[in-house]
Design a protein that fits this description.
This protein has 180 residues and is an alpha+beta fold. It has a domain at 1-71 and 95-116. The protein has 5 helices and 6 strands; from the N terminus they run αααββααββββ. It has a 6-stranded antiparallel sheet with strand order 1-2-6-5-4-3, with helices on both faces. α1 packs across α4 (93-113) and α3 packs across α4. The chain is globular and about 50 Å long.
């Protein structure tokens, strides 16, 4: 019983350290602390910081239309400081458009946290993007049922992770690609 309690306590400590790292990165990106005086360990309150919200709004305004412009857009690839970070793909434009505002907001927040980092001035090429996606899909696969109708396929490659949410019929709902 004590071992289980110690494990839970260690996981909680790891979570708080992770929140602190994220807050430090975001503070660096906006040029001022984002931790809330009411609860300095709350990531949710940090994400409500007014300066952070203003910085996010500028990015979102610049990028929002990119995901809404074409009727056949079903996903996007996200790079930070010239390095591929992640990608999300959906089976339809309708589902992608429903998710786009949340995806964009999360990506913008992550980019703000990496502002001032080592930047590669060159954007990733189309070939680099395709290689990133292929490497993630080529990783070793494992599958897990989430419920009777949905399963999660995970693939881990060298430097990549891939997650595909699939229906029991085999059709997929969402594909997520991450750089490690």
């Amino acid at each position: 019983m004590r071992a289980a309690a110690a494990e839970v306590g260690e996981r909680q400590q790891q979570l708080w350290r992770s929140v602190a790292r994220t807050q430090t990165k975001l503070a660096g990106g906006v040029g001022q602390p984002v931790a809330a005086p009411a609860s300095s360990s709350s990531l949710q309150l940090a994400l409500q910081n007014e300066k952070l919200k203003q910085t996010q709004a500028a990015y979102v305004q610049a990028l929002q239309t990119a995901g809404e412009r074409d009727a056949d857009t079903v996903g996007y690839v996200f790079a930070v400081n010239g390095k591929l970070n992640s990608a999300d793909v959906y089976p339809s434009n309708g589902l992608f458009r429903k998710m786009w505002p949340k995806l964009l907001h999360a990506s913008v927040t992550e980019a703000i946290g990496e502002r001032g980092g080592a930047a590669d001035d060159a954007l990733p090429t189309a070939d680099a993007v395709l290689a990133f996606l292929a490497a993630a899909e080529a990783g070793k696969a494992t599958q897990k049922s989430l419920n009777e109708t949905v399963r999660l396929e995970t693939r881990e490659g060298e430097g990549t992770l891939y997650f595909a949410t699939q229906r029991a019929s085999g059709g997929w709902v969402h594909r997520n690609y991450l750089a490690k």
